[in-house]
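Schema walkthrough. Field components (list of strings):
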Amino acid sequence: MMEVTQSGSAQHAAVLREFGCEHSLLSRPDGSASFVQGDTTVLAGVYGPAEVMVSKESFDRATLEVTLKPKVGMPGVAERSKEQCIRQTCEAALLTRLHPRTSITLSLQTVHDDGALLACCLNAACMALMDAGLPMHCLFCGVCCAIDQQGTIKLDPTAKEEKESRAVMTFALDSTDCRVMMSSTKGSYTAAELQQCIAVCQRASESIFQFYRDSVSRRYCKA
Amino acid sequence: MAAGFKTVEPLDYHRRFLKENCRPDGRELGEFRTTTLNIGSITTADGSALVKLGNTTIICGIKGELAAPPVDAANKGYIVPNVDLPPLCSSRFRPGPPGEQAQAASQFIADVIENSDVIQKEDLCIVKGKLSWVLYCDIMCLDYDGNILDACTIALLGALKNVRLPEVHINEETDLAEVNMKQKNPLNITKHPVACSFAIFDDTIIIVDPTVEEENLSTGMITVVTDEDEKLCAVHKPGGTALSGEKLQDCISRAITRNKEVNKLLNEVLISVKPK
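Field assembly_structure (string):
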């Protein structure tokens, strides 16, 4: 069941691309989701809580492992860095202390990359964790924005816009207070521009969280 | 008795100090450990630097090699950083291929080099389309006591300032590169990025320059990289508890002050090093 929505907020010509998601599309993982932002598509699968290797076992919490596979080629150092960001964001959102000595495995596959990849991965990860029914104390969403050479802030840039811009920033925001959980930036910018970008992303995250609520309620409240 | 309490309840032990706005080693919340910088210690490398941030020891060695420039950027050279966390520095690292922390640190350093424009890659090109320099920056940790990202960026900057590359030109008749080892030039360093790392405790308290115990007990980490023009090159917060706007602004201000302290130290060290 595929749902598609369009949303926008007209500041700085800052509009999110058309986004949509699909739940439970894979049969083997405990939870799975696919998230589409414009042309960028990421597929996520979650297994857990499951058996953990004794070497990675943690006595008081669940151990989360994240694997991100690029569309072409072997995973490299850049993928490891993104995996670290996604893993620590998920660990902060999940109630890992409810499942000690278990493992939760999150596998992400890039189906197509047209900009804002890390943000799309975070959204797919959150939807897959929800689909798996894992307890979380807040939801999170990923928002990407770019500052172009003239200083305008563009939300959800395409790959072409990312290449032409002076700075690209990806933030993970939590659903309770809309504060910054994760930040990954490229390029250089001033502190004032950073605060402006965070404000723009916080406004955009409201529409993404509303979409999460709508898609889950549509799924569980079938008339 | 305090040692027993620290082993049994490490988080509570640290919390008691933080309530009094100080830390177990006597530092304030915003105070860095003593930073020591030694430049040019590896004679076989083209440039090197050794940094000690408290107990954390990082060494960076840079070697230059010749290669053909990349096909899509014929007027640029390469700069290839690699961070290695060997089993020597801490018992948490096992022998074998680099783990996630080492790879994420390598990616972080590569991003800092690219975002801050510390050197222009065009300066590394010798002959457009034919010959350029490749700078291999090997950063190795010798003692892991927390906050390696800060120490790695200082080591990298120190080593880059110490690099002396020989003059190279292509002989028209033989079409081979000729290296003149007698004439060595330093690199043109345009920006001086400095990283400043913070650990977030219990969602509210932010401490600067965490030791390895503080890192393990923290609920989040954030690293801010600034250059000397007070522009931000990176705000690296790989997940963890959320941060409000005001706390983020405090971190940025502290990072800007740290940039000035480190650049002052770097300049003093460079003046004292005799030119080769």
